[in-house]
Amino acid sequence: MDLHIVIDENNPIYQLLKLLGCDLAQEHMNRYDALVLGLQFLFACFMLYLFCKMIYNMMIRMTRCVSSI
């Protein structure tokens, strides 16, 4: 049974993950390739989480500085 999922390459989330090194459109031939793709996906999601957390903390610190003036 061959399962092929069609991915819209114009999707911004897909493009962002591809820029971070996780190409979801590639076909995996064995379990090792699937494991590597899964690890790439987890790493990309973790990097996005860290980026969002950094931006949030920066915004909180800026509002504290502005409110103390």
Note the main attributes of this structure.
2 helices, 69 residues, mainly alpha
Brief account:
With 69 residues, this protein is mainly alpha-helical. It is built from two helices and no strands.
Count of discrete domains:
1
Number of helices: 2
Helix and strand composition category: mainly alpha
**Helicity range:** 55-70%
Gap from first CA to last CA: 65 Å
For the biggest sheet, the summary is:
none
Element string (H = helix, E = strand): HH
Q: Determine the strand fraction and express it as a percent band.
A: under 5%
Give the uncertain stretches in residue-range form.
Answer: none
Please give the radius of gyration in angstroms. Answer: 18 Å
Q: Name the shape in a single word.
A: elongated
Estimate the mean pLDDT confidence: 86
Could you tell me the number of beta strands?
A: 0
